[in-house]
Amino acid sequence: MTEEGLIQILTKHSQFHILNHYRSLPSEKKRIFLGETKELDFDLVFALYNEFKDQKGASSIGAIGSAPIVAVPKTVEQEAQRREAHRLGEAMLKEDKVAALIVAGGQGSRLGFEGPKGAFPISPVRNKSPFHLFAEALKAMSIRYGATIPLLIMTSRENHRETQRYFESFRHFDLDPHNVHFFQQGMLPTMTPSGQLILKDETHLFANPDGHGGSLKAIHDSGLLDLLLSTGYTDLFYCQVDNPLVKMADPVFLGYHRMADAEMSTKVVRRTNIEEKVGVYVTLDGKERILEYSDLGGTHMSLLDANGEVLYWGGNTAIHAFNLSFIKHLNHHGFHLPCHRASKVVDSLGNDGKTTKIDGWKFETFVFDAIPMAQKTCCMEVIREEEFSPVKNREGVDSPLTARSAMSNLFRKWLEETGAKIAPEVLVEISPLFAVDSETLAEKLSGRTISIIRDTYFGD
């Protein structure tokens, strides 16, 4: 962004309050201001504002129906299909066809933690972070299958360098640094409902990350997508950093993805009650997609089937698999995911030099909006207790306490299946480098009798 370019943009869109502020700055602060605005897409955000400003309210959403979901196997035929999926997924890993992406742009401030959310101590005994757990899991999978699984981490402007330093301080958790790639998601300016840009402070406009859907744009713009394609990779395992129970590069999931010849696949968990506020996998006008609970509406969220079970039961886990060529297509002649508008209260620097709270509009994309754009899709049910315990709140539901409990309970279950005796209230933790699943744990402990009376860690 040059000074001339900034002045042209601000004049074109009648942002004279920002223009006057910029002109009042000393030269050094002008330089900082220009640097901070160079990657903001002003043309896009003003186009989005014009698109949303005249919307009066929600329109009819369309015809909603149940989507096909590969359920947890209950029959001999389903078990056989799962074994075949496992075989296909293992082959993809062995042939170096799969990379992994962690979306990790958030900070841990809501958890009372200063630093990237992925660095938050979360495991039940050793307090390992999600980054540590995910890296160990990929290391274990790489050893198991003789594979090279590139790890891609999408950061934000706020935590990019800190995330890099965190990995460096742990020597990339014994992963090859050449196969660990960091890239930043995009930022979009936040605007007032009247169409004004907002000053965050003297040298910054208020801006927000462009949403988890921005990962599919940023991986393209960073050059990493072309790098993966040019080196023979075909598919991408995707997850978000706030769920420590993610099965990284899960071969069963990858296998179902391949069996369906899917461009995009999704894991869901079964909604156990109608009150759970989670996006739901459904069809809308015949196309599979995930609808947020606020878009689906209370009536549809509450519907039951003939057996009294939740009708639309596929709850979004934010775990996906993508064909890399599909991501390439989404970026062909510009990025194609739709933007959503959200209202929030933000701190704004006023003309008097004081900060006040005002209403703002932020614009963001959702990764699951790519589902209806895919020619073929796949959706797989997983067991909540084994794969889904997100950390979103400091206390209560979806908190560090519930995630640690879920992790310990899962490891306890694995151990008890081998015949281990574990005292009540004892916490247990199993490193992915010791066992990535109950089957490998059973093999490792075969013939051994284990009794656990205190918090215990099974390491590498």
What is this entry, summarized?
This protein has 460 residues and is of the alpha/beta class. The protein is 34% helix and 22% strand.
Account of the protein in words:
The protein has 460 residues and is of the alpha/beta class. It is 34% helix and 22% strand. The chain is built from 15 helices and 20 strands. The chain has helices spanning 3-12, 16-24, 27-37, 42-52, 76-94, 130-145, 160-169, 215-221, 224-230, 251-259, 293-302, 324-330, 384-387, 400-417, 438-444; strands spanning 64-66, 98-103, 151-155, 180-184, 187-189, 199-201, 204-205, 207-209, 235-240, 264-270, 280-284, 287-291, 314-323, 339-349, 355-365, 377-381, 421-422, 428-430, 451-452, 456-458. The strands form 7 sheets. A 7-stranded mixed β-sheet has the order 4-3-2-9-13-10-16, with helices on both faces. Strand 6 and strand 7 (204-205) form a beta hairpin. Helix 5 crosses helix 10 (251-259), helix 9 (224-230) runs antiparallel to helix 12 and helix 14 (400-417) packs across helix 15 (438-444). The protein is globular. The N and C termini lie far apart (50 Å).
Features:
single chain; 460 residues; alpha/beta; seven-stranded mixed β-sheet
Question: What is the count of β-strands?
Answer: 20
Helix content range of the residues, please?
Answer: 25-40%
- Any idea what the radius of gyration is? 24 Å
Q: Catalogue the unreliable spans.
A: none
Question: Between the first and last Cα atoms, what is the distance in angstroms?
Answer: 50 Å
| Number of helices in the DSSP assignment | 15
In the sheet with the most strands, the strands line up as 4-3-2-9-13-10-16
Beta strand %: 15-25%
Mean pLDDT: 95
Which outline best applies?
A: globular
